[in-house]
Amino acid sequence: MAEGVTVESFFAPDGVLAAGIPRFEHRPSQVRMAAAVWDIFRDSGCLMVEAGTGTGKTFAYLVPALLSGRKTVISTATKALQDQILDHDLPVLIRRFFPKARVRSLKGRKNYLCLRRFKEFAYQPSFWSREEASLFGALHEWAARTKTGDRSEADWLPDHYQAWNDITAAADQCLAAQCPHYGDCFVQKSRLEAARADLLILNHHLFFATLTVEERGSGDLLSSFPAVIFDEAHHVEDVAGLYFGLEFAGWTVTDLCRDVLRAMAHPKLPATFRSECAASCERISQLIKEVHKRLAASTPIPAVRHRFDPGAMPSSFHEAVGQLRDALENLGRTLQGSSSSSALWESLETRCGSLVWKLDELTAQGDPHLTYWFEIGAHAPGFVLRATPLEIAPILSEKVFAKKETVVLASATLATVEQKRPSFRYVRERLGTPENCRELFVPSPFDFRHQAALYIPTPFPMPNDPRFCHAMAEEAFQIMNKTQGRALFLFTSYRHMHETHRLLAERLPFPVLCQGEKPKRKLLFEFKENIHSVLFATYSFWEGIDVPGQALTCVLIDKLPFEVPNDPITASRVERLSQAGENAFYRYQVPRAVLQLKQGFGRLIRSRQDKGVLVLFDTRVLSKPYGRIFLESLPPMPLVHRLDSLPEHLVAVD
Question: N or C, which end of the chain has less CB nearby within 10 Å?
């Protein structure tokens, strides 16, 4: 770009973007945000910005970042946004305005093929099904010719191709510089390319995974980028918490045993050593099943988070864990005694030691700054023991805000409401932003007063009323007939979703789709293709999906999206705030639910041409003191309580 080009000249009605992009739309809200991002790049510091739907926030931070010339990381929460930036937004900017800029994307290690592990797997393959085995020939051919090792190239592989776990470049199975294929390593190549980038695109999980590794003294990729922009920044607290805690997963133990057994097939090892390793692995496999069984017996509800309190667990659980720990330690000693001193055996021994240490830490629970919890699946080895920081703010303050010259936190949902004004206090407290962090609230340019309405039927049963689901199904039936389908029904629980779906699926004269019946990508495709369809879904559909136009005219929400009060992380944080004399409900639970509700509403109006109705079946928003906070956090639009009062132009089929 020519010298002297400014952000204002870029976004002006007759500016650089307007001259270079056909049908470019000048948006004053986008200019405001871009100017604020440019200022923070120029001055250094921190900026929080809520940019409503339709602002064009992606261009509003990409252009200043590129103009600044500063090496910048762009971190997103969802793959949908990452793909949009890489496939749509950046190609336009780079091709037409910043041809010299080097842009790279980086994915997690498990997206890349590991040449060493693939060679070992090919020597002794094992598959979950004949269908998987039938694809191995094509996979072998792809592995021989790929230049990147990126799984996305092999788009013919099913999403749940189990054998990929045996050949991927997982961190705990990496031999690093001691690997015989290190010079051709796809992960290493991708990171070297990333280090040379001016703009690096990745997701929050990879950002914090990389940051924790670098904090332990391994690598310096992120430290070479002085600026970071977190888009979808409302997810930063939850994602960061996963990486600054501890995790012991049953399947990592199963993976370890599989790798030990596979490694024994190659070297010429003593028979006694082989026998001891095989016996240890068999013993560990049985004990993993036993630990899973004991955990499952402690809770009737799988697939949700449970507080992990060893003191409340039966003696049979402690006995199984103790035996598992001893068996892992014994395997580590056996591996240490191997006559082979190769990096592979050293790596396997290190993995054993790491698992023993994590198991000790998680069962001892000696850190008062962590909350301990577990998740369990229906079958072994599907369980995870975890420890998550109660407060992520001091960690982010030290490891992100204090070390980066420029940090931008952007989202369509960062602000709540205090005294009828947008407030960033909740996000400030949760993320530990500097006191001088700047704030900008940019409302959506859409005309919600004419494009949308909020329908809260009254009178209506409360969510804890046994009649609630039946009443909700009956009202939804009337609404969907009025809108001719074209509805996204968002739920806060699977129980409500399945019950309401059961009550409506056979009655509705439209195609009915339900989360869990098909992959998310296929459900969305069918929902968009058939504009009269209805989609029932839970939290994974509350954000990150874009259905503009006729296919979506009505978003229905069962109840205010408060987190389950006995969720271990929520319960621990509420407890901590209450002990400090704070009103945890208003300082933590309400703001989180407000941001989630705003995300759900954000699915409805995606363009100036869109129109529709938000339906909320939770009358607490009208009867409880906290209800006004939710209502004031939504854009101004008509509120109606009778179906026949809905503006006809919002629900009519064009």
Answer: C
